[in-house]
Amino acid sequence: MDLPFIVMQFINNMAVCLLYLGRLSESVHLLESTMQGDPALCLHEGYLFNVCTLYELQSSEAAAKKRSMLRLVAKHAGDGFNVASLKLQPAKT
């Protein structure tokens, strides 16, 4: 049993519950503070997908926040990480 992964899943589920309770800011804060504490543990595609979805619900600055997540992924994850979970839109030309 991988305890850190189970804890990360618990925190992710707790954030989803906070969202359903209408506590969006608390949900975002919970996920962000967990990522700041242990970025390598939180670099799971489902976790980051939820964070990016919350950013879209919370702010018009979602794209900038997602780019900061991309920098975090580049720093702590390997090349095999699926960045589609960050829900970034291609640059318009």
TrEMBL record:
One of its GO terms (cellular component) is TRAPP complex. It comes from the Eukaryota. PANTHER family: D-ALANYL-D-ALANINE CARBOXYPEPTIDASE, TRAFFICKING PROTEIN PARTICLE COMPLEX SUBUNIT 12. This is Uncharacterized protein. It comes from Rhipicephalus microplus.
